[in-house]
Model the fold of this input.
Amino acid sequence: MHSLIPVPAEFTPGNALFVLNHHARILIEPAASEVLRIGNFLANALRPATGLALPVADATNADARGNILLALSDDRALGDEGYALEITTDAVTLRAPRAAGLFYGVQTLRQLLPPAIESQTQQNEIWRIPTGVVRDAPRYTWRGAMLDVARHFFKTADVKRFIDLLARYKMNRLHLHLSDDQGWRIEIKGWDKLTAIGGSTGVDGKNGGYFTQDEYRDLVAYAAEQYITVVPEIDTPGHTNAALASYAELNCDGVARALYTGIEVGFSSLCLDKEITYKFLDDVIRELAALTPGAYIHIGGDEAHATDPDAYKKFVERVEKIVPAHGKRMMGWEEIAQAKISPQSVAQIWRGEHSARAVEQGARVVLSPASKTYLDMQYNETSPLGLHWAGYVEVRDAYDWDPATWQGVGAENILGVEAPLWSETLLTLREIEYMALPRLTAIAEIGWSPQTQRDWNSYRERAAAHGARWDVMGLNYYRSPQIDWQ
Ligand code: TNX
Done:
């Protein structure tokens, strides 16, 4: 049986093999723009380990035998992200109505090859792919992960490796937590002290830094090439010490705060009575919107314990007008549902206290329950990294739940799922990998696969097979005792 993660909606295994040999070509139809790009992406993915030439060529008048065909089809039932993959002893045929579907089919195909395919050096292997038919499309449109670059900053090279990981598992949203008490991480023209001062440090004084707008644009484009939309978050009105340290005028008392390198939450607030606060947010949101091809700007809204509750609601209602003025929709942590919010807005559930209030108002939700999806929770009491305020999150805790049963929310209100990785305790890419794997892959499967196809015992086995792949890729992961690693 296959070890695909996420498990496909439909898979009919055959009982033979297709062999990728030195005659193989990647045929594309039409031989233009996006399909050509995906053809090249696949060729680049397969060339290092196979050492095969794998030329990418126009499928018109070509014989499919021995080759991999990537083609746009009019199989609309597969939707914007679905694909159909057929592997016979003769040929590999991948068809999808949209390019995104082809990209996801390519990820499936890579996983059907042996783990050695992940090597960056040529391997002495016969490249067999089991025959069968896959028909696959996602359960949810929002399949996300969040990276907190505010507590500790991660440079674009590291964020790109995280993006690569999301793409492997058919995730399509990268939420970047770009500001918090400890750091402001995105250049805003005309507010240069945000990064010069607010971006200068991080938790324990480590990993300061920020993205220039050019670096950020490059990240957004890199993610888009793998069909991932970057969702920027500027946390407001709390979690704002870095901004309050950069500009005295954002404080009610007009006195700049000291930079903060601890990990407490809930002590900072923008001054909600001052017009300069809204001028500031208008400038920030305008610039973020210009950098963002996606529909949503995340305005945070969590843990505003230092903000008056009535002022908080008015604030959210006012910010909710600023976001659409710049052509975007508002997303916020679930606390925003205490205010009057528009059905266009999205509430991100992390505790569950405000789920019902959000959907009553017609807003949709993204589910990020901390006790299941928080990648920064320790796996167990001996985990060297992470926190445990929401409990320990072993792999089964992350995997074995169904969003459709979430309290106070109907299936129709759920836009999808997202796994946040907060970085108070994380300094390096290797540490990110350790916390993400094998839980990020569990959330990816929850986001993509039909509940009827999901099963913990099956996931355990498939995750073990991916461990072999992660070894070849040089990825760091948690060797959970719940999984029989190979
Ligand atoms: C709670 S989750 C927070 C973050 C912390 C995280 C640590 C949320 C919306 N707020 O500020 O980083 O816990 O797990």
About this structure: The first strand starts at residue 10 and ends at 20. The pocket of TNX is lined by residues 265, 302-303, 333, 350, 374, 376, 387, 422, 424 (CB under 6 Å). DSSP finds 14 helices and 15 strands in the chain.
